[in-house]
Write a structure and sequence with these properties.
The complex is a heterodimer of chains A (266) and B (400).
Chain A: E1 2-12, H1 21-25, E2 29-30, E3 33-44, E4 49-53, H2 60-67, E5 75-80, E6 83-84, H3 89-93, E7 96-100, H4 111-121, H5 126-140, H6 155-167, E8 173-177, H7 185-200, E9 205-208, H8 212-218, E10 221-226, E11 229-235, H9 236-241, H10 248-265
Parallel strand pairs in A: 4-9, 4-10, 7-8, 8-9
Antiparallel strand pairs in A: 1-3, 1-5, 2-3, 5-6, 10-11
Chain B: H1 2-13, H2 16-50, E1 53-58, H3 64-72, E2 76-78, H4 86-94, E3 100-103, H5 108-113, E4 121-124, H6 132-155, H7 163-167, H8 180-211, H9 213-218, H10 221-225, H11 231-266, H12 271-279, H13 282-309, H14 313-335, H15 351-362, H16 367-391, H17 395-398
Parallel strand pairs in B: 1-2, 1-3
Antiparallel strand pairs in B: 3-4
Helix pairs in contact in B: 1-11, 2-8, 2-11, 3-6, 8-11, 8-12, 8-13, 8-14, 8-15, 11-12, 11-13, 11-16, 13-14, 13-15, 13-16, 14-15
Classes of the chains: A alpha/beta (266), B mainly alpha (400).
Chain lengths: 266, 400
């Protein structure tokens, strides 16, 4: 169970940075800071998959980074299974698995070593670690290249290793930042199968994406972020209902339009 | 922290570039460089010493003894020429017809009889670094003028027995109080620091880039940050790795110098080197190492701070080149003649360590001064490590 309330984050702008005209029109630029995320709230229950949608630069990555404790929010709260991420970041981190498309591996280390390193950093005991990695290797069919160095792996092998690394400590929630962007079809399939697998065992997954077909096939809930505000949060059926045709693309555009109308009115 | 340290170390050990920089370079390349340099230098010197200089003498009949001595000198070879005017001689030297022209005034003998001073001209290209030619010429001239002095004085009726005392009333015999080691230490002590300290930086810089900017570039930093490990532990683990490689580089260099020094010293003619090396006790070597540790820590934390800030490998490398140039300034200052270890110079980072190493090699180190420098360096290193830890907590540094 994940609950996010009124999350906000601003970045200080450098003195030298000049804003373009379009940027000046963006309501998020104020004085000397850029309010990347202004007000984001949503929740995700046990075993649910939540899709995070939004245009480029809407604040999706920043939101996910705050969720994963890499960034500290200015305001708002994040609760993961009742653990306040802001108050107890180290405890919360043990429950989070994080992965993005450009997450890399240590090229000089083998698949096993890459995964084991993060397992140890998560405080896992050697015996438990070994067993867990063996389990993951079987699950992802990775035994063939367990001792191959990441530098010599194919993209698919790398992505499998990255997935195994993200869940080695059996996280209570998995956060994925555009996990399929820039990957080939086979590798995308690996990632999608992995999300399905998590869903089956009841682990909640939050992932951001630009692919609406992924949302249609995987998600239980949808959140649309635009200009740092969660413009829509609800289940898939509610989202579809926004467009008369029931088409996801139309529904997405409808949310954005409604949002900009509200902005104009305000 | 140790997990990070161990993993970074394993990764580095598998990296060929690091191995080359930290281990191979100091072991093999440095002695090779010095060997080649020494060889080139000694062979060019020998060549310059054996070189024959073509010369033209104008009015040689005015000083026949000198002309004869010049003619029979093995490094001079006479060339016939009709030129007499200085401008023509200069032009001919520029054209490469001969190397040097000696112009004796045509009234030289007349002036000599009247006991008047006359002026000779020596025309040659003075830009050469190894100016053996003028040294030979001066030797010849000194002999010749000595003869003339004796002749003139005898002609004036001076007692020949007293001539030596008149010509050179004072003869100085130099007695050196510095022992051999102090002498060698003064000359080479600073040089050793000059080699040792940059090596700490060199050995540490590649791993440092890899661990900060490299981690950003590979996209592994974010996953590392959200591990349930404090950021201080991550930084310290990385810092220790950089420190280890820097020290390893320096240690291997010292060892390689020692071993190569002994090997070269065992050949003929290098007994001095052997003697000097033998005089340096293990305690002093340990003290030198003790000085190097905090210095390496300073470099390691600086390099790591730069590397964490940089977005890419390239950016980090761009920031590092000015750092290495900056480091050479105090090192060069320590090498300058007349720069001594005082309370003031003991407070200048890097320079103080260089001076301390020099003193230790000379064997004239003052214990309290060494302690002061060690304290100052440790304090600076601690401050920089603290900065590095603080730096690593900044979102604007990590997510630029």
């Amino acid at each position: 169970m994940i609950e996010i309330k009124n999350l906000a984050k601003a970045f200080a702008l450098g003195k030298g940075s000049k804003l373009s005209d379009t940027e000046k029109q963006d309501v998020r630029y104020a004085d000397k800071e850029f309010r990347s995320v202004r007000d984001v709230s949503f929740h995700c229950g046990q075993g649910e998959v939540l899709g995070l949608l939004g245009p480029n630069g809407a604040g999706k990555t920043t939101t996910l980074r705050m969720l994963s404790t890499a960034l500290k929010p200015d305001a708002g709260s994040v609760l993961i299974n009742g653990v306040d991420v802001l108050r107890e970041p180290v405890k919360a981190r043990k429950q989070i698995g994080f992965l993005s498309a450009d997450t890399g591996l240590y090229g000089k280390l083998s698949a096993y070593e890459n995964i084991a390193y993060f397992g140890r950093l998560h405080g896992m005991k050697e015996a438990a670690l070994k067993q867990r990695i063996d389990e993951l290797f079987t699950m992802l069919n990775m035994h063939d290249f367990a001792s191959r160095r990441a530098d010599n792996m194919s993209t698919g092998m790398k992505q499998k290793t990255a997935i195994a690394r993200a869940v080695v400590h059996s996280p209570k929630v998995v956060i994925l930042d555009e996990p399929t962007t820039g990957l080939d079809i086979m590798t995308v399939q690996t990632v999608l199968d992995f999300i399905k697998g998590l869903k089956q065992v009841g682990t909640p997954v939050i992932f951001s994406t630009h692919h609406l077909d992924e949302v249609a096939s995987l998600c239980d809930r949808v959140v649309v972020i635009d200009k740092g505000i969660s413009a829509f949060s609800g289940d898939l059926a509610e989202f579809k209902a926004l467009a008369p045709t029931g088409d996801l693309r139309d529904a997405f555009l409808a949310v954005l339009k409604q949002q900009s109308n509200e902005q104009g009115a305000a | 922290m140790w997990q990070v340290y161990l993993k970074e170390l394993t990764e580095l050990m598998r990296d060929r570039k690091t191995l080359i920089f930290v281990i191979l370079l100091p072991i093999f390349i440095f002695p090779v460089i010095f060997g080649v340099m020494g060889l080139v230098l000694s062979s060019t010197t020998a060549k310059a010493m054996q070189e024959q200089h073509k010369y033209v003498i104008v009015n040689g009949d005015q000083a026949p003894e000198f002309a004869e001595a010049l003619f029979y000198h093995k490094n001079f070879k006479r060339v016939e020429s009709t030129l007499t005017a200085p401008e023509e001689l200069i032009a001919a030297i520029r054209a490469g017809e001969f190397a040097v022209a000696v112009v004796i005034p045509d009234d030289f003998q007349a002036k000599q009889s009247a006991v008047e001073q006359s002026q000779w001209q020596l025309i040659y290209n003075q830009s050469s670094q190894l100016d053996f030619m003028s040294r030979y010429f001066n030797e010849l001239l000194e002999n010749y003028t000595g003869q003339l002095q004796r002749q003139s004085l005898s002609a004036l009726g001076v007692d020949p027995v007293k001539l030596t005392a008149i010509l050179k009333p004072v003869s100085v015999q130099k007695v050196d109080t510095a022992d051999k080691r102090e002498n060698i230490g003064e000359k080479f002590g600073a040089l050793i620091a000059y080699i040792l300290i940059p090596l700490c930086l060199l050995g540490a810089s590649y791993p440092a880039i890899d661990m900060g900017a490299g981690e950003k570039e590979r996209g592994t930093l974010e996953t590392l940050l959200i591990c349930p490990v404090s950021r201080s532990a991550i930084v310290l683990g990385k810092f220790l790795t950089v420190l280890t490689t820097g020290l390893a580089g320096a240690l291997i260099t010292v060892a390689s110098f020692g071993i190569w020094g002994a090997v070269i010293g065992s050949f003929a003619g290098f007994a001095v080197v052997q003697e000097a090396m033998g005089a340096i006790a293990t305690v002093e070597l340990l003290l030198i190492f003790l000085m190097i540790v905090p210095t390496s820590a300073i470099f390691a934390s600086l390099l790591l701070a730069i590397s964490i800030y940089a977005k890419t490998f390239k950016e980090a490398q761009n920031y590092m080149s000015p750092l290495s140039i900056l480091m050479f300034v105090p090192l060069a200052a320590a090498m300058m003649p007349g720069v001594e270890l005082t309370t003031k110079t003991a407070m200048i980072p890097v320079m103080n360590v260089a001076l301390a190493i020099k003193e230790l090699i000379k064997g004239t180190a003052d214990g309290s001064m060494i302690a002061l420098i060690f304290g100052a360096t440790v304090a600076l290193a601690a401050a920089l490590i603290a900065f590095c830890v603080h730096w690593f907590q900044q979102e604007k540094v990590l997510f630029r």
